[in-house]
Amino acid sequence: MQAAEATQLFQSDASLAVGRERAAKAERTAHGAEHGHPIWIGKHASPLPAHDEADAPAPPVDVAALASRAAGADGGLVKVIAAHVPHASGTHIWTAESGRVARATDLESGACVQQLRAHTAPVSALASLRVGAETLLFTASWDKSICVWLAGDARAAPVLTVPDAASDFIKALHVDAAHQCLVSGGSDRVVRVWDLAPLAEWAASPASRAAACPALRLLGAVRAHTRPVLALTTLPPPPAGVAIAEGVARGLCLFSGDSMGRILEVHVALDGATRDAHCDVVRELDGHETGVHGMAPVWRLCADDTQATADLWTTSADCSVRRFPLAAAGRRGTAPGRVSHAGAPLGRVPPVRADIVVPLRDAAKSVLPLGAVDDALQELVLVGHASGAIDVWDVEEAPRLVRVLDAHWHEVSFLGAWARADGVVWLVSASLDGTLRRWPLVRVVHGGGGGGAGGAAADAGGAGDAGGAGGAGVALTAEEEAELAALMDE
């Protein structure tokens, strides 16, 4: 009698079929510019070629191990739950991993440059604050703690640990650098605002760092959510020299999204003397039916170019991406709100509804409006799917799928931007498949060979106008159609 692989026990035939499909894609996308110059985290260096993209060496990927261990429902050997690029002009990306590790990887060389170990459960979130030449890194975990580190420091231990920063799993962290605040949220449904000003003062000079790191002080909390908080962000500073449209908040404006699809806009007023925070739930952003996994704010100029407005792009397990305009100026209409019952709208003013809805073929976990990278690209948005696909959508008129990047074989947990030393902007993605992918922005936008733009099949069969919740225009190959039919017949 032949023993079954441990990873095949207690799995359905459909689950095993998904695993085989993922293993095949892992092998096919293991190398090459067209697949995002993959970095296999923790395995080996994967340097970007200086000139000819064909010069990049093929990584030694053990495809057999991927097929038997890393291509099932649980993802890769290294599962990236979250990622963060501390400085857009730097070369490091930090990853929060299921193996209780926070890791820094050099995006040029692909080599691991630092590993941080202190948590006793998966590291679920991270954020950073730049203080002069130093960077304070914050990590959070399912162990309910927050750790503070000096990035690049030779010490293996955190400079500060808050062991009971929540009463349940922490799932999201965000730093608002302009107001020197850290925001955390998670399964206990509470959003907490922490004071980073004393830590920033401590990190500012070697003399002050000779003393112990000051404690992380809680400034205030939001207890309006009735489900776990999954995503947090704040509105970045507005563009200089332009009037701000009426309806867009000044000061510290926080957004929190939960597993029921509710998104709250919270204005945080900091006392000038004590820095105690008064958290005021102003309104709800009404639209998503279930978990909100990604949020990205972006400023844009109104049509008259005399004032700026702000939007919040969100993505959800309800298979949609939405744009919520925070001011009436520049709004393109109003989409229907949520259908499911979630209780009375929260806040002291009426809810905001989306003016753009992008229907997707499956759940999405990450979103990046390219207007946040380049003002000239306001009409483009990137979406990272639970299936591993990365879509490029044009939303200038009706949402239109432009191309699909052929890369990850499992959930895309992060999308971000990074500028190389020559000033050329690249996009970077991370996934539960254990890889990082690097894409030249110009090729993501314009397509073309070698840029990871999905190839001829994606450009020809994957692009088209979105029609219906499935995102029309995404064609299946003959092999995929046969496999789908076989699965449906089971």
From TrEMBL:
InterPro entries: WD40/YVTN_repeat-like_dom_sf, WD40_PAC1, WD40_repeat_CS, WD40_repeat_dom_sf, WD40_rpt. Coiled coil: none annotated. The lineage of its organism: Eukaryota, Fungi, Dikarya, Basidiomycota, Ustilaginomycotina. PANTHER family: WD REPEAT DOMAIN 5B, WD40 REPEAT PROTEIN. The keyword Amino-acid biosynthesis does not apply. GO terms for cellular component: transferase complex. Residues 20-57 are annotated as: Disordered. Residues 20-37 have a biased composition (Basic and acidic residues). It comes from the Eukaryota. It comes from Malassezia obtusa. Keywords: Repeat, WD repeat. Pfam families: WD40 (PF00400). WD repeats lie at residues 182-196. This is Uncharacterized protein. The keyword Repeat applies.
